[in-house]
Amino acid sequence: MRIRRPDDWHVHLRDGSMLAATVPDTAKTFRRAVVMPNLIPPVQDVDGVRAYRARIEAHIPEGSNFEPLMTAYLTSATSPAHLEAAKDDLFAVKLYPANATTNSASGLRRIDDGWPVFEAMEKLEIPLLVHGEVTDPDVDFFDREAVFIERHLKPIVRDFPGLKVVLEHITTSDAVDFVRAARAGVAATITPHHMELTRNDLFAGGLRPHHYCLPVAKRARHRDAVAQAACSGEAKFFLGTDSAPHTKASKEQDCGCAGIFSAPTAMAVYAEAFAAQGASDKLEAFASLNGPAFYGLPVNEEFIELEAKPWTPDTWRETAEGPVRQYRGGAEIQWSVTPA
């Protein structure tokens, strides 16, 4: 297959010495990438956005036209004035419920506190990217996405009809149904691992920390609904790897970090998954067309080629901070990616 060069509409590049690995790994395949702001401290104002972009750009390979699209972290201190000052540097704002995932302690403890910011974002035409999970201890861990949709996301979408909203890394049939039925300006990203993994994969032969991500993988029926949505060709669903590197030491410990590092293997895995669904003809829309259409950006002029040629990626990606497990590393993938 030959498709337009894809974009990654959700990626974690981390910071510091890790950027030397993550930026080239993403830039190799993707033309643009929406970079998440959950650093320590979080990226939350114009100075933070500009400084983080500069650190990323320092690691873009020579000759690459890769473009990082920057986001700001929505905290209780975020104000409409912050957004007005940063609007020319911001691609989107990210909503993390407090303690929903890695480095999200600065997120909103009360989603209702975000209403003045959502109103400003609607006026400034800044999209809202949502990690859609509640964190209430009385809500079953596997129900957190569905409860968030009912409790918080539906009111946001209703009360701010001009606000673009992306429910990121969806994992349930509830999310698929919500996005399909929602008004124009509501979309979802889908990861390669959520097209493949179920919660059984977390416990296959023992605890598998490198399959642990947030939102966590769900039952097979939810996995199948998400995969079918990705392969449907519907414009509301597009590619977002949620590639999120953690070192071996940080994953394999008493309280291991959530995140799956997929940047080097993602497009090959997507191609394999689409072929398995008999939907290879829909891959370009998902990977290269639907996202730009939603965000009002031009499609990429470059192309990549995908070939039904098996290969086995290395198990580990060596970084200055330690080895990071690659998604599907050490196992054969049936498709390969080469620049066109």
Quickly list its features.
single chain, 340 residues, alpha/beta, eight-stranded parallel sheet, three-stranded antiparallel sheet, 10 helices
Question: Could you please describe the fold and organization of this structure?
Answer:
- It is a single chain.
- This protein is an alpha/beta fold and 340 residues long.
- It is 30% helix and 14% strand.
- The protein is built from ten helices and 13 strands.
- It has helices at 19-27, 46-57, 80-86, 115-124, 144-159, 173-181, 220-230, 248-251, 266-276, 283-295, and strands spanning 2-4, 8-11, 32-35, 67-73, 92-95, 128-130, 165-167, 186-190, 237-239, 303-307, 316-317, 324-325, 336-339.
- The strands form three sheets. It has an eight-stranded parallel beta sheet.
- Helix 7 (220-230) links the parallel strand 8 (186-190) and strand 9.
- Helix 6 runs parallel beside helix 7.
- It is globular and about 50 Å long.
- The N and C termini lie close together (10 Å).
- The model has no long low-confidence stretch (mean pLDDT 96).
